[in-house]
Prior knowledge:
It is a single chain. By secondary structure, the protein is an all-alpha fold. It has a single domain (9-268), classed as Formate dehydrogenase/DMSO reductase domain (Formate dehydrogenase/DMSO reductase fold). It is 78% helix and 0% strand. It is built from ten helices and no strands. It has helices spanning 9-34, 40-65, 68-76, 83-104, 111-137, 150-172, 178-206, 211-214, 219-241, 245-268. The longest helix has 29 residues, at 178-206.
Amino acid sequence: xxxxxxxxxxxxxxxxxxxxxxxxxxxxxxxxxxxxxxxxxxxxxxxxxxxxxxxxxxxxxxxxxxxxxxxxxxxxxxxxxxxxxxxxxxxxxxxxxxxxxxxxxxxxxxxxxxxxxxxxxxxxxxxxxxxxxxxxxxxxxxxxxxxxxxxxxxxxxxxxxxxxxxxxxxxxxxxxxxxxxxxxxxxxxxxxxxxxxxxxxxxxxxxxxxxxxxxxxxxxxxxxxxxxxxxxxxxxxxxxxxxxxxxxxxxxxxxxxxxxxxxxxxxxxxxx
Length: 272
């Protein structure tokens, strides 16, 4: 019998926060590269949001290891065959890009440099958002080991939760106006549709192997919390009343809840 890893809330939060950090950075880089000056607030919010979130990822990873020096030891030598070493290096490198991008977001004189840094940093943001799913799919655990599209699903979820987080911050700081706000809402709707499609393909590819999350104890959370409240409801709200700010806030919160539920049911389903 295979021994389950015994991961609990700390790792669930780490997976969740890492997805948001990667998605927020991706949102900022897109707005910076393909947007206009009017999208400057979206760019700044995305970069500034990614920075503390990736720092929190490092803190959670260190806390889970138990001894802080273990994290530093992982950074001394890059071991491409060790998933934990890859993860530690990914968090560290993306953290450096987040620091630089956040600093450059306050200077328009360095906009060209910032865009270049953002495009490269976006690769590591994608890595942070998706590698946790890839890590699970490379294990020998039932369900996890058969879920080859887990990385793609986590990446799609990271994009939607990152955009939702940026939208929510814009609402809180009074930046939910103008062209930038309309673009971020449209992008968030598109990301939810993509996540639904990826989720459908993910379940179809798994077939009966998906039962740990689609039936039994975790089924209400999966269907109600992720598919319903986390994707279908906010998507419907955005389509019907996307101009109403309070609806935008509710939609963003629901997407974030759905992203957390996804990681919770996936991680806990084989450990209950």
